[in-house]
Amino acid sequence: MYLFKKISSLRRYLELFRNKNRPIGFVPTMGALHEGHLSLVRQSLEAAQCTVSSIFVNPTQFNQASDLEKYPRTPTTDLTMLYKAGCHAVFMPSVEEVYPPGLETQVEVDFGPLALPMEGRFRPGHFDGVAQVVKRLLDIVEPQKLFMGQKDYQQFLIVQHMARTLELPVEVISCPIVREKNGLAMSSRNQRLSPEQRERAAALYQTLQQAASWARQLSPREVEAKAMEHLKSLGLEPEYFELADGQTLQPVPDYSSPASVVACAAIWVGGVRLIDNLILK
Ligand code: PAF
């Protein structure tokens, strides 16, 4: 496995694959890797001849300085995990390498209603930062395939929308959520939970599953209200629990009209913010 810190040397390495028309798969990460990230790497290894992963804690997508500061950083373990998974190359740039002074990296794409609910409502500016870094990394790596986790459902739709709008020559692929034994969706932020909090946080997935069965009898708004109450009764602090159209992310009026329905939620557990989702239809 090769480790690159500079764009120029990564590009020189990737030229070898490009010259031979060998597809490149890309797994962008912010490090603090877990099985979920490794599952993306494995899917890329199957679909492409070269797999590149990036480790870069992107400052522009954090809307709170304290969240950026507390974001877990485990570079040595991350590199070992990627090496063992068979990743070919890792890009671990500095902030200056990604955002050199004078280079315009803001993305001028209108995400419309996609960026407004849920994460967009509670983390203003977050998706502008995500789009900015993903576009910049895509410009650097120029992969044919981009692998993203379904856990960040809204993020996937935003990136897919950006790729389509800008006609980027990349296929954006959503990969299934990987869960702990107790159902908790794997997340780098889980590292900040105590064992007791990890157990409690599993109620988020259980509530998503319960929502699926409540939906047989209750309207979408009733399910949302019941899920919020349920999470609160368990001592969790839910920020939102929404039943949304799986394509537009707008609230669904019923279950029959939209082609797909997804339940998305965010909760706080002991100062750690977690998100999860379940596709209901
Ligand atoms: O999902 C993440 O880890 C990040 O938002 C991403 C896509 C790597 C961009 O920084």
Tell me about this structure.
This protein is an alpha/beta fold and 281 residues long. The chain folds into two domains: 2-175, HUPs (Rossmann fold, 3-Layer(aba) Sandwich), CATH 3.40.50; 188-279, Pantoate-beta-alanine ligase, C-terminal domain (Pantoate--beta-alanine Ligase, Chain: A,domain 2). The protein contains eleven helices and nine strands. It has helices at residues 7-19, 35-47, 65-70, 75-85, 95-98, 119-122, 126-141, 153-165, 195-201, 203-214, 220-233; strands at residues 2-4, 24-29, 50-55, 89-91, 145-149, 171-175, 237-245, 261-269, 272-279. The strands form two sheets. The protein has a six-stranded parallel sheet with strand order 1-4-3-2-5-6, with helices on both faces. A hairpin with a 2-residue loop joins strand 8 and strand 9. The mean pLDDT is 97. It binds pantoate. Pantoate (PAF) is lined by residues 28-30, 58, 61, 130, 133-134, 152, 155. Pantoate binds next to strand 2 and helix 7.
